[in-house]
What does this fold into?
Amino acid sequence: MAVAIQIVPGVAYYPGWLPVEGQRQLLQALDEILAAAPLFQPAMPRTGKPFSVQMSNCGPLGWVSDRDGGYRYQPTHPQTGAPWPPMPQILQDAWANLADYALGPQACLINYYNGTARMGLHQDRDEADFKAPVLSLSLGDSALFRIGGRERGDKTQSLRLHSGDALVFGGPARLAFHGIDRIMPGTSTLLPNGGRINLTLRRVDAPPA
Ligand code: MD3
Ligand code: FE
It folds into this structure.
């Protein structure tokens, strides 16, 4: 069993959880996924303001957002209309090892950050099962991650996330505000063109009664 560091109640941090060989293997799987399901640029509901982060997904469901449809999960890519590629075994294994939840992951959101991309403080509440944890894996350049409490104004803590780090958000942290303040370019050589990939594995549907 991997050693977890508790950041705030409900957050388990596994620094360097995925060794470099595993990171390369995962990256190769992602290259194939992104060839079939290209990165797209989501937009904010109503305003249509584009995200600076580019996204794709794998697994049965994927998270998307656009001006008219808003935040949602759907089984197909918003541009190609094709079903999302299957979730690779290495990700299913990561969930089995870290998530401590009886049901498997339904969605893996792939976030790509170039050197200037960021993600403002937000809650993840588009899922119908808040009892299920969210598992995050980081690849590539390091990032400054920030996490607070359930209210937007709660005090926050910052953490540098590095390639291979895993985080599990459950219990009281599942609805915590969080975001990425900045990427630190040049801190990893894993991605040939630099930048950062974050994967979040989630349950989406309400659990069976
Ligand atoms: C805390 N992604 O995709 S991962 C997201 O690095 C997202 O791309 C960031 O926030 C990224 O929604 C942060 C860490 C993370 C993911 C999900 C969480 C933290 C979380 C859900 C609940 C609480
Ligand atoms: Fe989030």
Summary: The first strand starts at residue 5 and ends at 6. Residues 109, 111, 119, 124, 134, 136, 167, 169, 173-174, 176, 178, 180, 198, 200 surround MD3 (ligand 1) (CB under 6 Å). The mean pLDDT is 97. The chain is about 15% helix and 30% strand.
